[in-house]
Amino acid sequence: MTCAADREPTLERRGFLVWVFWTAMALIASSVVTPLVAFFSGPLVQWRSPVRVRIGRVDDLPLDRPQRVEFVVRRRDGWVTESGRRAAWIVRRQSGVTAFDPRCTHLGCAYRWRDATGQFVCPCHNGLYDLDGRVVGGPPPRPLDTYTVMVEDGILYLIPSPQRRTA
Amino acid sequence: MRGIERIVSWLDERLGVRAIGRALFARKIPAGTGWIYTLGSITLFLFVLQLATGTLLATSYAPTPDHAFDSVRYITEEAPIGSFLRGLHVWGATVMVVAVLLHALRTLMTGSYKFPRELTWMSGVLLITLVLGFGFTGYLLPWNQKAYWATQVGTRLAEQVPLLGPAIARLLLGGDELGPQTLTRFYAVHVLVLPAIVVSVIAVHLFMVVRQGISAPPRRGEATAIASDGAEDRQRALAEYARRKEGGKSFYPYTLAKDAVAIFLVLALVALLAWHFAPEVGEIADATETSFNPRPEWYFLWLFQFLKYFPGNLEVLGAVVLPGVGFALLFALPFLDRSRHRHPLDRPFMVAGALGAFALLAGLTIAGARSPLATAYVPMAPTVARGARVFHELHCESCHSVHGRGGTVGPDLAVAIPGHDSEWIRAHFRNPAELLPGSPMPAFGLLDDEIDALVAYVEELRGGGPPSESAPELFGRYCTACHELGGRGGHIGPRLDDIGSSRSRSFLHRYIEDPKSLFTDSRMPSWLAPQGPLSHEQIEDLARFLAAQQGSSARNPPSHSSKKNP
Fold first, then answer.
1. ipTM above 0.90, yes or no
2. B-chain residues within 8 Å CB-CB of A53?
């Protein structure tokens, strides 16, 4: 039963089966784990194209005088689509149009425009900004955040996600 | 290698892992276990696959009626590799049902449920019912029409249980009717309760498999013991098994290599199915839709078909009593079967009975799958269905009516926009005041795909786009012999002046192409070439023409030149 001639092919077969088992297991594990990891890592590769909001005709905006505009932003997060009212301050200058996020960069209060001084004033801690959003007084740590704007065929559009600027 | 050896030694001193490993992997398996003995391992693997894919699916699933459908659509259409992942889960379930049934059939055929493995068999039967429970609860989760109506039928069946029926149905539904509470209950049972129970029962099942060893393949004429035999006979049977086990080979790698290869092939099959037959999203569950034909998942089709033979008061027999008796018999099989033989040829009655039962189930399943649909139903195109949902979400019906129902601030959408093409409608939705100065319609800030869906919906309401100039002539030539329209035509078929109010373009198209596919008793012939004289395009033209026939308020015949403002 146990002579060398019998044993050798058995050992060979055993080694082959060990190789078959581990190869198959590696293939099974990797083919199952790959789609799982890919699915879970979705947020790393999935970027939503930014929502563009139509504001109106550029020519209707006053020159050198900020205008507060309100608009509806409809955005999608995963499987939920929501509408929300948002606002922006639009400044039209000879050089172009700028849109400011309507929250003070200090603590997020809603600032307003004061015609008499020609400044944006934050009612919370008296933060002051000029027409270009630069800090001219008070505690704000950086200029007003802006929105990306674009003009096509005389129509102003903006993307309502705040862009930080450094002082 | 030395490092691993040291870790194993460290663990062995504390936990005795070497002995455990030897008991699990070096145990001997009787010779002659062929490929059909891999079915148990395949089922176990598929369960693990279901756990893994299900866990990942749960990260993007919302078990509430207002989000369930959308989250499943998100998984299927938007999430990276989501369709494939869901496909693995859906097809994994189907293949698992097949595998577990074949595993049971193998055990039945080889008489492996006999002494001393009665409890292994009983835990296995319990696992089959739990797997079916997974199928039943999981089927509802996509919250589409199929899911909703199959569950509706399933829970109503539970009501048939004598005495306790109504209480069971209320417990399943979580209230009076199928709704949010049903969905959360099914979800919790599907992802928490059943997995916990199944994992425990599998642990017991596997413990018994290892403890008692895999049953030796049966031999012709060989007799084993049964429970009522004397202790001596039982000892002899055990000793005979021990002898055959000793003559076998080690579980690792001889049996495991076979298992691993089989599992890999099954995984490849599931992946192939998931890739080529992506699971559908379907239409969102709608309790008011009356033309949908509820169908259960294929592994409940036998019951669906079976019930058709039990009219009225007898239904409880088909729904509860007979299936219940069937499972009870299966469960108690080791104690009911008094034969000492294990080889299939030595117990022809048992084998014939088992195969007969399987054939009966298969036959019922096939008959159920083939049975004609009771009502004609043509689902909406997915974009159109999405448009209808956006329409309702934004409460458009507060201002606009459709087929005469809804507000009157804005125009009736089914009839009001002729003359404007889809580009105009698109621009109008984007900014209503621009094309129609003074329009009271608000700008909703709609996303591009929402606009696409709304345009598709409005187009469908208007008959899927304008028909061609020659459509009325086409109708005159082929249809007026039987159908009346605008006061002219025959009376063999129904009048069609208002057909567009009740039938969609897609329905009409399918009906003209193949009437019997929608109404088996229809007397209208098929008009599609080669059986009929019309081409696919001509039928589409006719369908659009007919879908625009919406009673007295419809444009009749439709004209391209009207530039009336909506």
1. no
2. 445
